[in-house]
Design a protein that fits this description.
alpha/beta, 286 residues, 2 domains
């Protein structure tokens, strides 16, 4: 099926990036938040991203204007009634996501594809919020941050997801310039199942005094040729997000390598969530 109109629910870190890449590929995008000022802020953030690209000579001013013209901000969920694809990119919380999906199920066209940007929650669990007839078109579409830069999309098939939905999302991903991997519906899927034990071990090494945060990160960057150290990466993702994913993995597998380290629990409890709050395993200028 051809996807031309995209409704993105959530204008935060992931949502605004998802909106940007679709608009850059020529799609008409509606960026939704229940508070219009937040939806508008997400669109403005896209404008800032594009302006930086113009300043670096990577984008023409006319292209910037055309991309922004294809993005509308709204606080009206009814705008999903015209969507070919609905992408949900709200907080990684089952109750929040299922409530939103139930509302979208009542509004969106019967033929629309439903894609959740969850990084760890079961697709079948989220698909349970929509009617049975909708579930073959319900799929996990996990983008990576920052969305305009990271070239991977992780597709996660639920037990009801059909081949036509996977094919449509593969075709769309190619239009977006993304590479696709496909995961079964298991806790953490592929990427986070691999990543979270690495982050957890780095946190435990720090907690035990084996090394400083700087040395742990330098060890991964220089010794393992990783672009970012594990503690830097956790701060970038958001320690609250990392904790949520680790809890899903630990609940799902009940294995010690997935257990959230005490230092992570403590930092999140104190409100130190990484780059977005100015402090996590490292401190950041505000």
């Amino acid at each position: 099926m051809a996807i031309e109109r995209v409704f993105v629910a959530g204008a935060g870190l992931m949502g605004h990036g998802i909106a940007q890449v679709h608009a850059a590929a020529g799609k008409h995008v509606t960026l939704y938040e229940p508070d219009l000022s937040r939806a508008t802020a997400g669109r403005d953030r896209i404008g800032g991203n594009l302006e930086r690209q113009v300043g670096k000579g990577r984008l023409e001013a006319s292209e910037r204007d055309a991309i922004l013209a294809r993005i509308a901000a709204t606080d009206d969920l009814a705008a999903a009634a015209e969507a070919d694809l609905v992408v949900e990119a709200v907080f990684e919380d089952v109750a929040v996501k299922t409530s939103l999906w139930a509302e979208l199920d009542r509004v969106a066209p019967p033929a629309a594809v439903f894609g959740t940007n969850t990084s760890s929650i079961s697709i079948d669990r989220l698909a349970g919020a929509v009617g049975e007839a909708r579930r073959p078109a319900f799929v996990g579409v996990h983008f990576f941050s920052p969305v305009p830069v990271m070239p991977l999309v992780e597709l996660i098939r639920g037990s009801a997801t059909d081949d036509a939905t996977e094919a449509a999302m593969r075709e769309l991903a190619a239009e977006l310039g993304k590479q696709v991997i496909v995961s079964a519906d298991r806790p953490g899927f592929l990427v986070n199942r691999i990543l979270m034990p690495l982050l957890g071990e780095a946190m435990r090494a720090y907690e035990e005094g084996t090394g400083t945060a700087e040395d742990i990160d330098a060890g991964a960057r220089i010794g393992l040729n990783h672009p970012m150290g594990p503690l830097e990466l956790a701060d970038f993702i958001g320690l609250d997000v990392v904790l949520g994913i680790m809890r899903v993995l630990h609940d799902g597998f009940d294995q010690p390598q997935f257990a959230p380290p005490a230092i992570l629990e403590r930092l999140v409890g104190e409100g130190h969530l990484g780059q977005k709050t100015g402090r996590g395993f490292h401190t950041y200028p505000r």
